[in-house]
Amino acid sequence: MIKHIVIFRLTPPYTSEEKERSLKRLSEIFSPLGAKLDFIIEYRTGINILEAEYAGDFVINSTFSSLEDLNRYIASKEHRQAVAEASEIRKSKIVADYID
Cα-atom radius of gyration of the chain, to the nearest Å? Predict the structure, then answer.
């Protein structure tokens, strides 16, 4: 199994309303992907609930049966579209891919 973890951190400055709106939008964009691609084993998203200087704001936690399936996901039309839609939101990201 391959785990694919993506953590987004919104880039300041932003108001609390802008942050809430951006996180809701990330959820709207990325959360449906798990149901759209049948080769994804598990796909969960979440919004961070604790405020900390070192914390991310939004996470995607997904599982694939192989590196090939992860690459299929990354190259898929659905994923590319989600990335394009999310590009309007100022953020940084960190990714970890590992064998589970």
Answer: 14
CATH code for position 71: 3.30.70.100
| Distance, first Cα to last Cα, the chain | 5
Q: Please give the tally of structural domains in the chain.
A: 1
Domain with 36, as residue range(s), is 2-99
For the whole model, what pTM was predicted? Answer: 0.94
Digit-coded pLDDT (tens) for 6-25: 999 999 999 999 999 999 99
Phi, psi of 45 (to 5 degrees): -130, 160
CA-CA distance, 52 to 50, in Å (whole number)?
6
